[in-house]
């Protein structure tokens, strides 16, 4: 049974301010299922008309409630309950072209570019159409944007610092012994340093020879990847 925006927002306010009971959880679960068919239709359209493979997911009950209590938004305005993700080996120009093609597939689709102002290292372009009256967030990301973000996602500052330390030790080891696919130069490492910025964690390697680009995806445990 479809819900009006007013009914959805009233449910959101209850979930935000009141103790969670079985009735409200059931209503939220019913709301989630309403996004399933629009998400599947958008996914099929991407495959059939643009030959793009997209993975799908519905936001869980817990993450919806957490977001309501963390951010000032109405439940009916939450645009990422239904989400699709496309990840390709491509540059920014190709990514822009893909975004335009996807937006052209859905009338009135909005585009949100999160590359210029990333949040905790997250970079992507979102195309958000309404399908049967429900928003579906389509994330378009390059593989480089995935690698640059995944190792840090969900880490606290202490865990992130520990990861940087372990990664730097591994870099030292492979640098002095053999070439490694995640290093762009095979010169010997002279020294390393880490830095912590106010807006997040940064990591750099210093060398007396050319500066090194490190793909941290080589060192991150599986649990740190998307």
Strand order of the largest sheet: 1-2-7-4-3
Under the CATH scheme, the architecture of the largest domain is 2-Layer Sandwich
- Unreliable segments of 5+ consecutive residues: 182-226
CATH class of the largest domain: Alpha Beta
The rough form would be described as globular
Q: What is the typical, i.e. mean, pLDDT?
A: 78
Count of DSSP-assigned helices = 6
In CATH terms, the superfamily of the largest domain is: Beta Polymerase, domain 2
Query: Level of helix content?
Result: 40-55%
Can you give me a brief rundown of this structure?
The chain is α+β, with helices and mostly antiparallel strands and 226 residues long. It is 41% helix and 19% strand.
Give an overview in words:
The strands form three sheets. This protein has a five-stranded mixed beta sheet. The protein has a two-stranded antiparallel ribbon with strand order 5-6. Strands 8-9 form a two-stranded antiparallel ribbon. 41% of the residues lie in helices and 19% in strands. Helix 1 crosses helix 2 (22-50) and helix 1 (5-17) crosses helix 3 (61-70). A hairpin with a 2-residue loop joins strand 5 and strand 6 (134-135). It is globular, with a radius of gyration of 21 Å. 19% of the residues are buried. It has six helices and nine strands. With 226 residues, the chain is an alpha+beta fold. The protein has two domains: 5-147, Beta Polymerase, domain 2 (2-Layer Sandwich), CATH 3.30.460; 154-224, no CATH class.
Descriptive key words:
single chain, 226 residues, alpha+beta, Beta Polymerase, domain 2, 2 domains, 5-stranded mixed sheet, two-stranded antiparallel sheet, 9 strands, 41% helix, 19% strand, globular, disordered C terminus
């Amino acid at each position: 049974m479809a819900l009006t925006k007013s009914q959805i927002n009233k449910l959101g306010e209850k979930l935000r301010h009141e103790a969670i009971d079985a009735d409200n959880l059931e209503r939220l679960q019913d709301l989630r299922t309403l996004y399933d068919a629009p998400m599947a239709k958008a996914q099929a359209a991407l495959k059939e008309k643009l030959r793009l493979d997209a993975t799908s997911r519905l936001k869980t009950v817990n993450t919806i409630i957490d977001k309501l209590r963390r951010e000032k938004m109405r439940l009916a305005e939450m645009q990422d309950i239904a989400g699709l993700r496309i990840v390709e080996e491509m540059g920014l120009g190709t990514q822009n072209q893909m975004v335009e093609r996807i937006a052209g597939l859905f009338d009135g689709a909005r585009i949100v570019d999160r590359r210029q102002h990333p949040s905790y290292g997250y970079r992507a372009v979102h195309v958000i159409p309404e399908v049967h009256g429900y928003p579906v967030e389509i994330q378009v990301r390059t593989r480089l944007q995935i690698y640059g973000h995944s190792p840090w996602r969900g880490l606290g500052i202490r865990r992130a610092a520990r990861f940087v330390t372990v990664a730097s030790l591994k870099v030292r080891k492979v640098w002095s012994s053999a070439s490694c696919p995640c290093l762009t130069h095979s010169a010997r490492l002279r020294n390393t340093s880490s830095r912590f910025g106010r807006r997040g964690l940064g990591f750099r390697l210093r060398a007396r020879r050319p500066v090194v680009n490190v793909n941290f995806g080589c060192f991150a445990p599986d649990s740190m990847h998307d």
